[in-house]
Amino acid sequence: MSARLGVPLVVLAVAAAWALLARDLPVKGPEGPGPAFVPLLLTGVLALLGLGLLASGLKRGGLGPAGRGPGWLAAVLVIGLLAVYTAAVARVGFLLVTPVYVALAAWQCGARSPRTIGATAVGLTLAVWLLLVRLFRVPLP
Amino acid sequence: MTDPAIWQALDQVLTWQNLLASLAGVALGLVVGALPGLTISLGMVLVLPLTFGLGSITAMSLMLGLFAAGMTGGSYSAILINIPGTPSASATSIDGYQMALRGEAGKALGVSVIASVYGGLFSLFWLAVSAPLIARVALRFGAPEQFALLTLGLTLISAFSGPSLTRGLVSAVLGLLLTTVGQDPMLGTPRFTFGRVELQAGILFIPAMIGLFAIPQVIEAMRAQGARVIPRFTAGLTALLPSWRELRRLHRSAFLGSAVGTGVGAIPGTGGPIAVFLAWDLARRASREPEAFGRGSAEGVAAPEAANNGVTGGALIPMLTLGIPGDPITAILLGVLIIHGLAPGPLLFAHHPEFVYGVFWALLLANLMTLVVALLAVRPIVQVLRVPASVLIPTIAVLCVVGAYGIRNTFFDSAVMLAFGGIGYLLTRYGFPVVPMMIGLVLGGELEEQFRLSLTLSGGDPTIFVRQPIAAACLLLTALAAIGPWLRRALGRG
Questions:
Q1: d(C-alpha B316, C-alpha B321), whole Å
Q2: B422 contacts in A (CB within 8 Å)?
Q3: Who among A43, A79, A105 is closest to B418 (CB)?
Q4: B228 to chain A nearest CA, in Å?
């Protein structure tokens, strides 16, 4: 399925899912609208916008720029690596994990000299640690 | 007689902590602005978690320094290497780079810095004059007017943030929907929390902002293997300051640019990129040498540079007086206010006048510091342009994770930041602007509260929104903004 049709369908699915999640909340409160009122109103607006996108998508060339495709690999790699880094900092500690992450990220950004990668990893870790822990008193693990 | 709060505020601003914060903000702003690929918003979201531990005026001094200097910094790379450091510096490169090729890079930089500060001071004057007056009028607004005004602001931002209003609105509504996570603002009922205690207070917009702005840039940089192709700048930098006679000749362009920047900046959703091209074009039409524009005219540098710093004061007008952030930068500034327990809007002027005047003084300080630092630090900033992406990108990534953690000292916020990073990347890749989502996240709570309060007051009668003239006018403008593009297309076909 092309992005022109797939994207509007995702928008419609989000609207439907959110409306489904709101089904157990009261629409009416004691003196006015209840907790579900605004979420349901917004899902209605989102569904209308999704239908608008779908209608434009069905008309050839009517949707404007359809985007450049997701570039999944890079996105999953960057976010995945950051998620692993986040989990590792929480368990192992900032000073031990950050140099490893920085070295990997620097390599991913095109650095190839071991000296540059090593210096970046150690220098950046210490600089951020000094800034956050010493200056701003953030209790990093 | 002058309000004594003005001078109390000056006393508060002139402390060594605030001067240091302003200087740090200016230095950081010049670097972030000068580096192509880094934006002022990115610099501000990375610094935002650090402002928790600072006083409100110190935090604003830091952020306003970054804002004002970032606008100026964008011109360095625009002039020296023909790559605008920020979108607002795009028009500066047209004439600035031509001047650099002619061996007048130093003069182009000098003109750009002086015009920037001129624009910044011009817009500060209008901010100081108009904001208290607007706030006084806005104090009379009730819940329906506030709801209608916020709706209008959000619609304008959606309309101006990309080529498709529908896509902008989808992004905004998604942002609004996400603000319904957490306790219901009126009754306290938990909504969409899935039993997670961390979600009871809702989604914090700071980790969301960091994710939306920074992570897509990190992904893009790593996709490109950090390839930041920056031509080497080798020419010497001489004669940074234009002569007095040249400055007098540039006055008209700088004035026009400042006026355009201040006016455009005050309209939510517009901002620097629109103002600078408008200013460049107006200055060309008003110039005695229009044919020199595009071929290295100093006037062609002065007008857009005055305009992009003119935006700084202009953009603060709706943010401070009505609580409507017109762009990501003012949304982040609004975040600083909320972090420090200050609600932006007309009540801010009534309850915390010394803070409001403090913001004006801090902006004045930021502009004056930009003038000094930007002229003195030309050579170090040129060196910064050569910092490789393999150092910059990991720095940003690490700051995103630990910055989000530092907000409440929980890695749950880092996870939220990463989730929004993914959302921001997907939105961008599929042609949806992220700015409306961000503004939706900031305004969502207030919008729902005012909407429900209006309906509660009217006993559920929705005509309350059209019975008040200001609310009705705002909603009419909202409808016009929403159907405008469709109407234009229909008329064009007819």
A1: 8
A2: 75, 79
A3: A79
A4: 10
B181 closest CA partner among A47, A25, A30, A13: A25
Tell me the pTM. Answer: 0.84
- Of B430, B349, B399, the C-alpha closest to B137 is B349
Q: Per-residue confidence at B278, pLDDT binned at 50, 70, 90? A: confident
Helix (H, G, I), strand (E, B) or coil at B183: strand
What's the domain range around B274? 4-228+239-484
Looking at the structure of chain B, the number of domains it has is 1
Complex confidence, ipTM: 0.91
Q: CB distance A82–B421 less than 8 Å?
A: yes
- The string of pLDDT tens digits covering residues B419-459 is 999 999 999 888 899 989 988 998 899 899 999 999 999 98
Is B234 within a domain? no
Distance CA B319, CA B346 (A): 10
Q: Do A82 and B399 lie within an 8 Å CB cutoff?
A: no
Question: How many residues are given for chain B?
Answer: 494
Residue of A82, A100, A132 to mutate, interface with B, max B Cβ within 10 Å: A82
The owner of tokens 């503004």 is B439
Q: Is residue B491 part of a domain?
A: no
Does residue B93 belong to any structural domain of this protein?
Answer: yes
Sign of CA dihedral B15, B18, B24, B27: negative
Distance in angstroms between the alpha carbons of the first and the last residue of chain A: 46
Q: Cβ separation of B227 and A110 shorter than 8 Å?
A: yes
Closest CA in chain B for residue A44: B173
Which of B155, B165, B186, B464 would best serve as a mutation to test chain A binding (most A beta carbons within 10 A)?
B186
Please give the structure tokens belonging to residue B458.
């009217």
What's the 3-state SS for A17-29? HHHHHHHHCCCEC
Q: What is the pLDDT of residues B114-171, one digit of tens each?
A: 999 999 999 999 999 999 989 888 888 899 999 998 999 888 888 877 788 899 999 9
* Residue found by looking up tokens 């928008």 in the block: A11
CB–CB of B355/B8 below 8 Å?
Answer: no
Residue type, B412: F
Collect all residues of chain B within an 8 Å Cβ-Cβ radius of residue A138.
402, 405-406, 409
Sequence ranges of the domains in chain A: 3-58, 72-135
Nearest-angstrom CA–CA distance, A107 and A102: 8
